[in-house]
Design brief:
- The complex is a heterodimer of chains A (116) and B (109).
- Chain A is mainly β.
- Chain A is built from no helices and 11 strands.
- In chain A, strands 2, 4, 5, 6, 9, 10 and 11 form a 7-stranded mixed beta sheet that branches. In chain A, strands 1-3-8-7 form a 4-stranded antiparallel beta sheet, with no helix packed on it.
- In chain A, strand 4 (31-37) and strand 5 (43-51) form a beta hairpin.
- Chain A is globular, with a radius of gyration of 14 Å.
- The N and C termini of chain A lie far apart (36 Å).
- Chain B is globular, with a radius of gyration of 13 Å.
- Chain B has no helices and 11 strands.
- Chain B has 109 residues and is mainly beta.
- Chain B has strands at 4-7, 10-14, 19-25, 31-37, 43-48, 52-56, 59-64, 69-74, 83-90, 98-99, 103-108.
- The termini of chain B are far apart.
- In chain B, strands 2, 4, 5, 9, 10 and 11 form a 6-stranded mixed beta sheet that branches. In chain B, strands 1-3-8-7-6 form a 5-stranded antiparallel beta sheet, with no helix packed on it.
- Classes of the chains: A mainly beta (116), B mainly beta (109).
- The interface between A and B is medium-sized, with 25 and 19 residues.
Chain lengths: 116, 109
């Protein structure tokens, strides 16, 4: 298994441009997440999804949109990029197991985004 | 919401030394994970350990859920152990991981 993969690895955007960060997992996990990590900080949750067709906001959703049309893919869309969105973006996935909730999250390699 | 505190914030070791990193959390948790973020920014799962003790090579972790803390032990440290170690938790029906600020570890040769 490749696990969680993200593209691109790096991107520079100009203010006002838009882009989509791609995330794919091949572990058949039902839950997927997008986080951002600012310098010297832990990760903050942007959006998450509990399954295809279902998404919900995290702590810092403003300026972002997501969709989940398949189990494998969870793209993150930035509209009208702003310097405040300069960050490293991580996608993650997890699974539920039986009656007991298991939320071990597995992370992709990250996308480093700079908005100038 | 749950608060997660990690200590120490920074740690410098000589290669071969042992260390203990601590994670305190303010409420009961369903899930606790330890991660290593290497100098290239990659997040590596170390342990999924909501309670009990686990070992993986030179690393081991213990979570005492009733006392709301977890410890990560690194033995015979190597330069490749350098990076930031994060503790993250979630609780109740909330699947969102709440992160500590990390312990930045530098292992010198």
């Amino acid at each position: 298994n490749a696990g969680v993969t993200q593209t691109p690895k790096f991107r520079i955007l100009k203010i006002g441009q838009s882009m989509t960060l791609q995330c794919t997992q091949d572990m058949n996990h039902n839950y997927m997440y997008w986080y951002r990590q600012d310098p010297g900080m832990g990760l903050k949750l942007i959006y998450y999804s509990v399954g295809a067709g279902i998404t919900d906001k995290g702590e810092v959703p403003n300026g972002y949109n997501v969709s989940r049309s398949t189990t494998e893919d969870f793209p993150l869309r930035l509209e009208l990029a702003a310097p405040s969105q300069t960050s490293v973006y991580f996608c993650a996935s997890s699974y539920s197991r039986g009656d007991r909730e298991v939320n071990e999250q597995f992370f992709g390699p990250g996308t480093r985004l700079t908005v100038l | 919401g749950i608060q997660v505190e990690q200590s120490p914030p920074d740690l410098i070791l000589q290669e071969g030394a042992n260390s203990t990193l601590r994670c305190n959390f303010s409420d009961s948790v369903n899930n606790l994970q330890w991660f290593h973020q290497n100098p290239w920014g990659q997040l590596i799962n170390l342990f999924y350990i909501p309670s009990g003790t686990k070992q993986n090579g030179r690393l081991s972790a213990t979570t005492v859920a009733t006392e709301r803390y977890s410890l990560l032990y690194i033995s015979s440290s190597q330069t490749t152990d350098s990076g930031v170690y994060f503790c993250a938790v979630n609780a109740g029906n909330n699947r969102k991981l709440i992160w500590g600020l990390g312990t930045s570890l530098a292992v010198n040769p």
